[in-house]
């Protein structure tokens, strides 16, 4: 079972990308090769900490066509977190508004089916009828669509963001205007399987790109206005937003990036909107309440965590800007040694 973000980690899924031989571009081959190399490093960190590591299988690049939409480059199985809510003894498989990710959960089916055979309740959200483009969540609010990364676990309380907020993100593209519908959120609440409390982060989008719960009474966040009202008495480690590194800015200007990546697979990347989406310093994973894996080394954050008795293990995910994914995104904790307790006032 699992109830929190900080209990002793027992089992975890680490994402996976396509075989580099399945793409022609040298640039993409390098990204895929180095991403898997980094995943192997992360696997070792987890195994050394005593956690069982699971990897998806049958991850191959194939064009998919239906009578409603088609995708030549489906996103690989890099983000197990996005479409799986694991809480208590339940696993909820959700789905978002991007047809390029419509069948993504199938990459993880063997793992989830094994958990179901072990006694977990494995429930899938009804498949929606998507258009041949990224669905604007506000325009499909009666359709069950929801990103599981909109939720993080805090004992008997689930911290969640707003499904969508077009006013807040008026100047952003459709795929940045929140990550779900109210129908999707209601489906999650109906199927979560426990009598839980809900605490809202007053914004739309993935919660793990905004804050992290490190231990009871301590959170890490980049914008204090996003702290739920139920957590106002928690201590906070506040991190600063950073500008995109120059090498990433240079890559965005690259002809190949603009002519190929943004033309054929814009859904693979997210770093051009990074300052408004994932804040990698808060997108962390805890081994236990005294140990956290971070995205690289940040002396200020390490010193702040040390004051609370937390050791930081740096992990260099080299292409996090390309994928717009931090450690929390590319993993999915399946089991922790913890309890369903009340941690809020």
Kindly summarize this structure in a few lines.
The chain has 345 residues and is of the alpha/beta class. It has 7 helices and 17 strands. The protein has a single domain, classed as L-arginine/glycine Amidinotransferase, Chain A, CATH 3.75.10.10.
Description:
The chain has 345 residues and is an alpha/beta fold. It is built from 7 helices and 17 strands. Residues 271-277 have low confidence and may be disordered. A 3-stranded mixed beta sheet has the order 2-1-17, with helices on one face. The chain is globular and about 50 Å long. It has helices at residues 26-48, 109-117, 182-191, 246-252, 255-264, 299-307, 320-323, and strands at residues 8-14, 52-54, 64-65, 70-71, 84-87, 90-93, 121-124, 151-154, 157-162, 197-204, 211-215, 218-221, 235-238, 285-288, 291-295, 311-315, 331-337. The chain has one domain: L-arginine/glycine Amidinotransferase, Chain A (5-stranded Propeller), CATH 3.75.10.
CATH H-level superfamily title: L-arginine/glycine Amidinotransferase, Chain A
How many DSSP-defined strands?
A: 17
H/I helix tally: 7
Q: Any idea what the radius of gyration is?
A: 19 Å
CATH topology: L-arginine/glycine Amidinotransferase, Chain A
Largest sheet: 3 strands, mixed
Please state how the strands of the largest beta sheet are arranged side by side. 2-1-17
Helix content: 10-25%
């Amino acid at each position: 079972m699992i109830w929190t973000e900080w209990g002793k980690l027992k089992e975890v899924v680490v994402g996976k990308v396509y075989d580099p031989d399945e793409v022609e571009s040298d640039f993409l081959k390098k990204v895929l090769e180095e991403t898997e190399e980094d995943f192997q490093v992360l696997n070792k960190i987890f195994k050394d900490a005593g956690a069982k590591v699971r990897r998806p299988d049958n991850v191959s690049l194939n064009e998919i066509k239906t009578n409603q939409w088609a995708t030549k480059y489906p996103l690989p199985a890099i983000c197990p977190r996005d479409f799986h809510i694991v809480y208590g003894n339940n696993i909820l498989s959700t789905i978002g508004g991007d047809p390029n990710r419509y069948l993504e959960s199938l990459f993880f089916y063997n793992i989830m089916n094994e958990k179901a055979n072990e006694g977990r309740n494995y429930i899938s959200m009804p498949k929606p009828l998507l258009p041949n483009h990224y669905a604007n969540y506000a325009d499909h609010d009666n359709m069950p669509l929801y990103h599981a990364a909109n939720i993080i676990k805090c004992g008997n309380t689930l911290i969640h963001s707003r499904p969508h907020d077009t006013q807040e993100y008026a100047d952003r593209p459709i795929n940045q205007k929140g990550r779900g519908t109210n129908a999707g959120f209601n489906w999650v609440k109906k199927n979560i399987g426990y009598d839980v409390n809900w605490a809202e982060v007053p914004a739309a989008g993935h919660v793990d790109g905004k804050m992290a719960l490190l231990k009871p009474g301590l959170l890490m966040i980049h914008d204090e206005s996003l702290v739920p009202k139920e957590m106002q008495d928690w201590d906070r480690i506040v991190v600063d937003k950073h500008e995109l590194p120059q090498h990433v800015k240079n890559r965005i200007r690259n002809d190949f990036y603009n002519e190929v990546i943004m033309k054929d697979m814009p859904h693979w990347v997210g770093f051009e909107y990074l300052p408004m989406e994932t804040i990698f310093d808060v997108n962390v994973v805890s081994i236990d309440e005294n140990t956290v894996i971070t995205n690289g080394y940040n002396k200020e954050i390490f010193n702040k965590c040390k004051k609370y008795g937390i050791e930081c293990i740096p992990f260099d995910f080299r292409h996090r800007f390309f994928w717009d994914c931090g450690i929390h995104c590319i993993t999915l904790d399946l089991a922790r040694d913890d309890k369903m307790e009340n941690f809020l006032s």
